[in-house]
Amino acid sequence: MKLGTRPSRRDLRRQLPPGPRIPGALQLVATWKRPSASLERLRQQYGKRITVQLPFQPPFVILSDPEEIKELFTASPEVLHPGEGARVLEPTVGSNSVILLDEDAHLEQRKLLLPAFHGEKMARLTGLMQELTERELDGWPTGQKVLMHPRLQRLTLEIILRAVFGLEQGERPGRRADLRPDRGASRRGF
User: Fold this and answer.
1) What are the beta bridge partners of residue 60?
2) Any bridge partners for residue 61, and if so which?
3) Distance of CA 66 to the CA centre of its chain
């Protein structure tokens, strides 16, 4: 490649870690049906860095080495642009969600969120999270299979509504904007 020329997609893909060569749709089905088993099988076959290709998405690189994950999370935001890779979530979380933003916009939104997640406040919320988890578990049938995803999703939402947004048990916001502490300022995302 000549100096000053932009690398081709093929050149960039060659730099990615190994991964399955099966079509993206089959990779999606495997991950969807048995996510943990599928990812563990890939880790055993390809190592601690794996490239997965899902339909209509750029390649995903999955890391499983704790040191590499720590390095990724502590990397400079000027080097990594995680918001670009998360654009697929925009219809769900909104265009100003902190996970979709990079650099200054990301830092601005993080500063707005940080007070809710400060260590002292999180320590006080431990009891609430434990209480809500125990209440959820008490409602599960014993000796029967249960679908975990919807139950854990409901529990997570309940914890967020109570801990972050201060809603009381059973109280539900009427609109998405009601979840925002400032009642829907255009710059806030969640």
Assistant:
1) 52
2) 51
3) 17
Which structure tokens are listed for 182? Answer: 């400032």
Whether the Cβ atoms of residue 101 and residue 90 lie closer than 8 Å to each other: no
Instruction: Compute the distance between CA of residue 179 and CA of residue 166 in angstroms, rounded to an integer.
Output: 9
Give, in order, the Cα–Cα distances in Å from 154 to each of 47, 61, 147, 189.
Answer: 34, 29, 12, 21
Q: Domain range for residue 32?
A: 8-74
Within-domain flag for 189: no
Tally of structural domains, the chain: 3
Contacts 24+ apart (CB under 8 A), 158-162: 158/132, 159/128, 159/129, 159/132, 162/128, 162/132
Q: Are residues 31 and 55 in the same domain?
A: yes
Considering the entire predicted model, what is its pTM?
0.48
Q: What would the pLDDT profile of 159-178 be if each residue is shown by its tens digit? A: 888 877 777 766 555 544 44
